[in-house]
What we know:
The chain has 4 helices and 32 strands. The chain is mainly beta.
Amino acid sequence: MEESMNDNQHADNAPSDDEALLDPSEAAEVVPDDPDHPMGSDDEDEPTDGPEEEIQLQNDSIAYFDLHSDSIFCIANHPIDSTVIATGGGDDTAHVFSVDIPSPLLPPSYETNPSTTRSSLQPIAKLQGHTDSVNAITYTLGKGDYLITGGLDGQIRIHSASSEAQSYPLLASAQEVPEINFLAPCPHPSYLNSFALGANDGSVWIYHIDEQDTETHLQVVQAYYLHTESCTAGAWTPDGKLLATVSEDGSFYVWDPFGEAAAAGITSSSSGQAVVGLTASDQRFAIEDGLFSVAVSPTGAFAAVGGAHGMIRIVGLPRLNNNNNISSSQSQPKTSGGKTNKAGGKKQAQAPASSSSDAGSQAGQILASLHLQSESIETLAFSPHHSLLAAGSVDGSIVIFDSAHRFAVRRHIKEAHEGFAVVKAAFGPTDEREAWFLTSCGMDGVVRRWDCRGGAGAGGGGQQTQQGLVKEWRGHRGEGEGGGVLGFVMMAGGKVVTAGDDGVSLVFV
């Protein structure tokens, strides 16, 4: 059309032949060649295909603490006042705060000026002094007189937590190892201010805190060196007389730090240090690629150890009654050698045979081998009042075993945390009713509670409500988004306080 209009104009003006010819460059400017962008279109004004994606955010918490500037790796609550919480994180600090939140007299709709935002819980104390992440924290048992922090800098730092010491002043510190993996307070009534730690060099240390000692407030009770690789987990027997530990080298040892087994005549291993020792050299016990979790039954009769590839071993423990009589078998497993006890352990004599028929009489014997999960067992927990053992795996599943029926599978929750690692599982700590309920957290950022009464669930993987799910709490980042729940503590009434990889501690009820 433009060419015909131009022709008419040229005819009216009667141009010469030279003037009628258009320069090629001028023609190109008049009609630009751009087939990808038709005239009259504007990409910015075009509507998008389909509706915009809506991001759903859910936060079920009633309160939060967010003064950590990095991941919260560990959490503990006071043994007397369980609303007092201590956390340690990747910012090299520990915080103490209270979750004793007063209930409002009226609902928010009755308030004159209702607030739409919440402020963080305020700290009781901020504890500094570590030069690397604080990845272990605990109160001593009994009255909870001391708060202990352990870090990837190898330090342990002891803070006074008595009611007179509101600011948690530093009492003592020590650094004997490169990195600390765990802290475990001792429940022995005579040694309530004692605790154990496991280190990445494989060593196990028992300390006692004595504030009245004018020379040193922190005393080494024992140190053990039989593990040849990182000591990953430890657990005391309920009476606090024996300590069980596991390692990445696949070894399992039971220690007698206060000499009560030796005084009762229980046979030690050939090393003279551990009363029970099993290593990967025993093919019945061996778990390739190491052990990562351990728990002791409420009776102290046996321990469960969890390792790589979903493997679990149940091992009988020696038992001491209140009169120090022996309920331990003569049969003892072989153990590997190691360095001598730094603190000079007591010599232990041969134990006579016992007629006891329970699992505790089978010290060092492998009572069961369990394998239902496909990846590492990261957490093990016994119910304090019922014959239940829970195992949580990196594959996202939880299995409930019945220890009273040869560890029969009571429930296999294959999608407990929807394919994300289960970090911790724990049964209710108080009465018999609460002890039927299992609480778990995982790298999906969700905390869930399961009713473990009855037999196997009716549903398969993914049908959580048919597997006993009674409640779940959300609020943390997760599902591969740089978050997850790395731990939690519980208190009476079902309240849960979390340690988030996103640097936030949430309070759920």
